[in-house]
Amino acid sequence: MLKKEQVLKILKPISVSLIPYVLFYLPILSKNTYLGGSDPTKYFYPSRYYLWESLVNGRFPFWTERIYSGFPIYADSERVFLHPLNILVTVLMGPFDSYKFLHLMFYTLGSTALYIFLRRRGFSYLGIFAANLIYYFSFYHLFHQQHFNFTLTTFSIPLGILLADNFARTKKIKWFYLINFLVVLFLYFGSFQSVLILVMAILFYLVTNIPEIINRIIGLKLMFLSGLLILTFSLPLLVPTFQLYLKANRSTFGLDFTQGSYHPLMIVNVIYPYFFGNGSNYKWNMVSSEYGIHETYVYVGVVALVCGFLGLKSLKKQRFRNFLLLNISAFLILGIIKFIPFYNNIPIPLISMFRYWGRSIVLFDFALACLAGYFVSYPSKSIEMLKFKQFELIKIKHPLVLPVGLLIILTLLNSRTLLIMKLFVMRAFVPDRSFFVWLTLLALTLVTITSCKTSLKKDLLSYSLVILLFVDLFYFGNGIIRSYTRTLNEIMPNPPNISTENFTGRTVVVNDNFFWNGNLYYPMWGVYGYSQYVTTNYIKTLNREEIHNDEMFLQSDDPLSYQNLGVHQFIGNDMEFVYKAEPKPLLNEFDGEVLYREEKEGHMNYYISSNKVQDLNTYITNYPGWRLRVNGQRSDIESKDTGQFIKFEVPKGQVVIELKFIPTIFYYSIATSLILAYLTNFFIKK
Predict the structure, then answer these.
(1) How confident is the model at residue 552 (pLDDT cuts 50, 70, 90)?
(2) Which of 92, 117, 199, 209 is most buried, judging by how many CB atoms fall within 10 Å of its CB?
(3) Quick check: 533 and 244 in contact, CB under 8 A?
(4) Hey, how many other C-beta atoms are within 10 angstroms of the C-beta on 100?
C-alpha cells in the first residue's frame, strides 16, 4: 500500500498538469465539441478525415483526386500522413477524437517534463504550478490552438530541454539519441518552423550547460552525428515534401521571412491584453494585414511579468540564468527582425525559410515561466532587494537592452509606428473594465510583494501570487478557447443533396465550406483545395481558364469556366445541381471511343478503340510517380516535365491503358534511410 508521501509525490505533477488543463479546456472536453478555427475546420480536420477514411478502406492515400484536380497529398507534410503515431491513433480513435488525444498526450508529457526539470532546480510545488500556468496558458498557446502541429511541438519544448538536461548531467549517449528521436518525431508532424524553435531551445541549454560542447572538435562531431541521425530517419518525409515544394507556387515566388515580424512598439501586447480591441473591434490589422489576432496577442500576464522580473534579479545560478537569457534574446532578435538593419536583408540559413518569427515568443514565455516560478518558489530571496533600492530595480545588465532601446527610438519615424501612435491617440485602447481589472491585478501584486517584508509569511505570499496569476490568465484568456470551440456539425460541411452514385468525375461545389478542403469529406473529385504546396502549373492553369484563385479560394460561378478541367457537374450554394453534363472519363476528346473505364484515386484503367495513332490528352494531373502502361508495355508520358495534365501516344486499334500512381521517391527514400541507418551505426561504433 502506498504511503502518504508516495501518493503526494504522484499527485503533485498530475495536479500541476491536469487542474489548469481542465479549467482552460473545459469547453472542448465534452463528447461533441472540438478545437476549431479557420485552419482546423478548413485544413486539418478534412485531411485527418480523409486519412482515416482511406485507411479503414484498406488504402493508403498517396494520391487524391478530391482537391486540385489531383494532388500528391501524402507529400504535404502538414497533413501528417506519414507520422506512425498519427496514423495509429487516427485509425483507432477516428479523425476528430484522435487529435483530442494527441493534444492531451503531448501537453501532459511537456507539463510533466517541466515539473521534473524545475524540481531538479529546487523549485517548489507552487513555483512549478505558476511556471506551468504561464508557459501553457498565456495568450501565445491559447491563440495558436488552431495551428495543430505547431502547438503539439511547442507543448513539448520542456520535454526536449529535460532530455538535454539528462544528457548534460550524465553524458550518456542514450540521451543524445533520444533528443534526436524527439526532433524526428516532431519533424513528421510537419511544422518545420516549430521544430527549429524546439532545436534552438535544446541548443541553448546544451551550450550553456556543457561548456566543452563549444570546443570545436567535440561540437562538430556532435553536430555531424545529430544531423546524420535526423536526416537518416526523416528522409521518407523530407524527400517527397521537398519534391513537391520545388513545384509549389511558394517555391516559385518565394516568401519574405520578415513577414509578420512584430513592430518594436508591439511589445505592449506582452504587457497588456487586447490592447487594440478584440473581435469586431480588433484594430492591429489596420497597421498591417500581417497582424492577425492569433499572431499578435501574446499577453503573458502582468502578474507573471512582475514575478519574472524579480526572479531575474534574484536568480544566481549562472548557467540557468544564461540559458533563460538566451531564450529571451532569441525572441528579441527574431520577433522584430524586420526592423533590425542589415539582418532584415540577408537570407539567414534556415531562418529565411519561414515567416512570422513573432512565434519565437514561445522561447520568451518559457524563460519568463521559469523566472516567475523561481520567484514564487523563493520570494524571500528577492524581497531583500526591495528595501528602498528603487534604482537597482531598473538596472538590467543585458547586452541587448541598449541596442533594442535605440532600435525602438529609430523606428519612431516608421510609418507603422506613426499609425500605431495615431490609433492610440484615437483611443483604440479604451480604459474599460478589462483595464481596471488589469490595473487592480498589478496593484495587488505589488502590494502583496511589498507587504511581505513585514506581515506575510513566505508560503502565504507564494499562494497569493499563484492565485493572482491564475485570475490574471483565466480572466483574460478563458474566452479564447471558447471562441475556438466547434461542434462536429460546424466542422464537417453538409454533403450536396445528391446520392453518392452521382459523385463521379470532376465536381464543383460553389459553397464556402468546399472552397478549401471540404471535398476531402466526400467522394467528389474536385478542383478546389488549400495547401502551401499547390503547384505553380496548377495556378497557371486556373489563370488561363480565368478562374479566380488566391491559393486558398478558387471560384467562378460560370460552369463553362471549368470545361478544360474535366468538370461535368456543378452544384450551387444551395447544394443543388446547377449544371450536369453526361459523365465522361478523365480523357479528353479523341478520335475513337471509350469501351470501358475504371477510375479510382491513383489508379485508372481504360479500354478504348482508337481510330488512328494519336496523342491522348487527359484531365489527370501530371506529377512524378505516374506509371503508364499501354497494352501492357511501359510507355512514356509526353508532358512529363511541363504539362499540367498527362498526355501520351496511343496506337491505332483497341488499346488497354493503365495509369497508376506509385510514389517511387518515397520508396527510394525509405531504402536510402535504411542504408544511412546502417552507415550511421558503423560510424558510431568506430
Answers:
(1) very low
(2) 117
(3) yes
(4) 18
644, 674 Cβ separation under 8 angstroms? no
- Which tens digit of pLDDT belongs to each residue from 320-350? 999 999 999 999 999 988 888 777 778 888 8
CB neighbour class for 576 (10 Å; exposed up to 12, middle 13-18, buried from 19): exposed
Which grid cell sits at 171?
A: 553524458
DSSP string, 227-256: HHHHHHHHHHHHHHHHHHHHTBHHHHH---
Task: Enumerate domains of the chain plus CATH numbers.
Answer: 4-33+96-481 (no CATH), 497-580 (no CATH), 592-666 (2.60.40)
Give the Cα separation of 329 and 533 in Å (integer).
32
Show the cell assigned to 411.
523606428
CB atoms within 10 A of CB 681: 11
Q: What is the pLDDT of residue 391?
A: 42
Tell me what the mean pLDDT of segment 563-583 comes to: 74
Predicted local confidence at residue 346, as pLDDT = 81
Residue 509: the pLDDT is 81
Q: CA-to-CA distance for 242 and 493, rounded, in angstroms?
A: 32
Check: CB of residue 624 under 8 Å from CB of residue 613: no
Give, for 674, the enclosing helix (H) or strand (E).
helix 664-685
Note whether 625 and 664 are within 8 A (CB). Answer: yes
CB contact burial 409-427 (16+ within 10 A = b; e otherwise): eebeeeebbeebeebeeee
- The CA-CA-CA angle for residues 153, 158, 161, to 5°, reads 110
Say what the pTM is: 0.91
- Say how far apart CA 535 and CA 418 lie, in whole Å: 39
| CA distance linking residue 421 with residue 417, whole number of Å | 6
Question: Cα–Cα distance between 399 and 200 in angstroms, integer?
Answer: 20
Q: Please identify which residue in the block is written with the cell numbers 512514356.
A: 636
User: Which burial class, exposed, middle or buried, applies to 405 when counting CB atoms under 10 A from its CB (0-12, 13-18, 19+)?
Assistant: exposed
Residue 628, beta-bridge partner list: 635, 659
Closest CA to 151 of 107, 108, 90, 202: 107
* pLDDT given for residue 455 in this prediction: 46
Q: What is the mean pLDDT of the chain?
A: 86
Residue 646 phi, psi dihedral angles, 5° rounding: -70, 140
Of the candidates 545, 550, 482, the one whose C-alpha atom is nearest the C-alpha of residue 516 is 550
pLDDT above 50: residue 601: yes
Question: Per mean pLDDT, which range of 175-179, 236-240, 489-493, 564-568 is the poorest?
Answer: 564-568
4-25 and 97-120 helices cross at what angle (nearest 10)?
Answer: 130
Helix 84-93 × helix 97-120 angle, to 10°: 130
> Are the C-beta atoms of residues 235 and 263 closer than 8 Å to each other?
no
Nearest CA-CA partner of 197 in 239, 142, 155, 138: 155
Task: Please state, in angstroms and rounded to a whole number, the distance separating the CA atoms of residues 576 and 679.
Answer: 59
Quote the strand ranges of 271-369, DSSP E: none
Q: What is the DSSP letter of 256?
A: -
Whether the CB-CB separation of 661 and 625 falls below 8 Å is answered with yes
* pLDDT at residue number 639: 64
Q: Give the span between the Cα atoms of 233 and 672, in whole angstroms.
A: 10
